[in-house]
Automatic annotation (TrEMBL):
Cofactor(s) needed by this chain: Zn(2+)
The protein's name in its UniProt record: Endoribonuclease YbeY
NCBIfam families: rRNA maturation RNase YbeY (TIGR00043)
Binding site for Zn(2+): 126, 130, 136
One cellular-component annotation, GO: cytoplasm
Amino acid sequence: MAELDIQISVEEGAWPSEEVLQPLAGRVLEVAANYLRKHEKQPFPKVAPELSLVFTDDASIREINAEWRSQDKATNVLSFPAFPLQPGGKPGPMLGDIIIARETVEREAIDLEKSFDDHLTHLMVHGFLHLFGYDHMNNSEAERMEGLETRILAELGLSDPYAGQDPI
């Protein structure tokens, strides 16, 4: 079983407490890590790799998105790998940061007719895969990443979030 050192921080927004988010994040990301290790032959460092999971609001993520991606708008999740990594490459002891915005997650969950927790779970998996070098900048990358997301979410008992959609 791949172990992760997950640092949780609730910075802004109407999120549950860190004590509530920690077990959810731990379960979701451990399943994702184990899936990558078992099915994608993803190497892991000998020590539990660390990542931070920051829960914030739309205003905060909009500022971050504008500063780091030159996109002056809120988004659901941002990932910042600690080191550049290609899929299948061995990560270092620090994976990076995942930042998730409460209001955007809520709006999208309603629009997608999914529960908040199911959509949050999907975004945690999505952000986690970015830390391992997966991306969706073109159709082939998107198909690969979305396929992984779908299979990991199935391990968590969730349906395909991309059913009936084209990649990207």
